[in-house]
Amino acid sequence: MNLKENLIVLVSGILFGLGLGLSQMMDRDRVLGFLDVVGVWDPTLIFVLGGAVGVTAIAFRFVLRLPHPLFSNKFYLPTRQDIDPTLIMGAAIFGIGWGIGGYCPGPAITALVLGILNPVLFIIAMIAGSLAYTLSSKLTGPGPK
Questions:
Q1: Where are its TM segments located (predicted)?
Q2: What's the per-residue H, E or C state across the chain?
Q3: Domain that holds residue 60
């Protein structure tokens, strides 16, 4: 990566982290309250979800009409459009982990600045799970394509 790309990544990461903090997405209790739809549901994060989906739905219509991104030579878009068991299993594991821990990777990394143990434990478990998958993929081969 060159300096310009590194600066774009840095600014994007800072902006993303500030957004997570401002929206309280790094507060695991708020996230767990939002995910608890049959208990004491906290609907405040619905505005974060609605804002993200709304901005994305509008912006992608304009951005994908460009010949290339502003800071790259081409778009890197997924080519597969099928839904296979590996995708379903990965989404389920992600959702279950989010529901149990109250974190997904971005908010967990952002929450490290809070100086509490929960995000540290989550990051350790996330790394262990990634390493376990990598090891199992080397032993058995990747999932179906």
A1: 7-25, 45-64, 85-103, 109-135
A2: CCHHHHHHHHHHHHHHHHHHHHCCCCCHHHHHHHHCCCCCCCHHHHHHHHHHHHHHHHHHHHHCCCCCCCCCCCCCCCCCCCCCHHHHHHHHHHHHHHHHHCCCHHHHHHHHHHCCHHHHHHHHHHHHHHHHHHHHHHHHCCCCC
A3: 3-140
Least confident range from 94-98, 115-119, 138-142: namely 138-142
**Taking Cα atoms as reference points, which of 18, 11, 12, 28 lies closest to residue 110?**
18
* Residue 60 in tokens: 């992608």
pTM for the structure as a whole: 0.75
Do the Cβ atoms of 6 and 90 come closer than 8 Å?
no
Q: How many domains does the chain have?
A: 1
- Choose among 36, 41, 32: nearest CA to 102: 32
Contacts of 9 (CB under 8 A, 6+ apart): 1
- List all residues 6 or more positions away from 125 whose beta carbon is below 8 Å from its beta carbon: 101
Q: Which two tokens stand for residue 71?
A: 């800071």
In a domain, 50, yes or no: yes
Q: CA-CA distance, 102 to 122, in Å (whole number)?
A: 9
